[in-house]
Design a protein that fits this description.
8-stranded antiparallel barrel; 8 strands; elongated; single chain; mainly beta
Length: 224
């Protein structure tokens, strides 16, 4: 009789343990809604793929010279920029590492009091390199430089020049600094400051230089 009763008990115990094991397997290893568990995914450094979209306010100062004129012109304008970026992050020591990436952007600047028209320009994909430090699971700082090109479409020149508008492609060098704050495990708010210089010198008649400062606010996705 004892043996007969023990068989159901053994089977019940086995089924119960299997149920617990199945529950453990189906439970998520990390619960994203609990920030205290993020460290198990971040492990001190948010590595690999990062995508961001941002809106920026741009203040620029143009300087230029037409070789068929002795006059050097200078004017300022302000505009709005949309930017899409990608960066691949790799660790070095602890929370410190570096990144490689690229970005593209579009800028529209309103007419200024010194120029004849607005400015429309496009940032062609270039190379971004920089350093990163992860201060915590939530906060990350980065700083780097970008080598790229900008296509300027129909830039309005000052009134005194006969040429109404010009379209050129110039080389750019940009320094940037950014702060990422992760409000969820893989989503962050990104604040960015950029200081850039564009230079263009043709063999024909035009030399241009543009100095810009940009403040941006964006959303970042980390594929963790």
């Amino acid at each position: 009789m004892t043996r007969v009763l023990s068989v159901p008990l053994i089977l019940g115990s086995a089924l119960f343990s299997l149920g617990l094991h199945a529950q453990d397997v189906t439970e998520p290893l990390i619960r994203p809604e609990l920030p205290r568990e993020w460290s198990r995914a971040v492990r001190g450094f948010r590595r690999e793929h990062n995508f961001s979209v941002a809106y920026g306010y741009v203040v620029s100062r143009w300087k230029g010279h037409l070789t068929d004129s002795t006059d050097i012109f200078s004017f300022a304008n302000e505009g709005h920029q949309a930017r899409i970026s990608y960066a691949f992050h790799l660790p070095l020591v602890g929370g410190f590492g570096y990144y490689l990436g690229t970005q593209t952007s579009a800028l529209v600047a309103a007419p200024s009091r010194d120029s004849k028209g607005d400015e429309i320009s496009y940032g062609l994909p270039g190379l971004n390199v920089g350093l990163i430090i992860n201060l915590s699971d939530r906060v990350r700082l980065a700083s780097g430089i970008e080598f790229g090109w900008h296509r300027i479409e129909k830039l309005g020149l000052p009134e005194r020049f006969e040429r109404k508008r010009i379209s050129v492609t110039g080389e750019t060098l940009t320094w940037n600094g950014q702060i990422d704050y992760f409000y969820e495990l893989s989503w962050a708010v990104q604040l960015t400051y950029e200081s850039s210089e564009l230079n263009y010198a043709s063999e024909e008649s035009l030399s241009l230089r543009k100095l810009s400062r940009t403040w941006s606010l964006g959303i970042l996705k980390h594929l963790i």
